[in-house]
Amino acid sequence: MALLEVKNLKVDFQTQDGVVNAVKDLSYTLEKGRTLAIVGESGSGKTQGAFALMGLLPKNGQASGSVMFDGKEILNLPLREINKYRARRIGIIFQDPMTSLNPYLRISRQMSEVLELHKGMSHKDAVAESVRFLDAVRIPDAKNRVHMYPHEFSGGMRQRVMIAMSLLCGPELLIADEPTTALDVTVQAGIIDLLVDLQEDFGTAIILITHDLGIVAGTCEDTLVMFDGRVMEYRKTEDLFANPEHPYTQGLLAAVPRLDKPVERLSTVSYEFMSQKGEA
Question: What's the alpha-carbon Rg for the chain, to the nearest Å?
Answer without folding.
Answer: 20
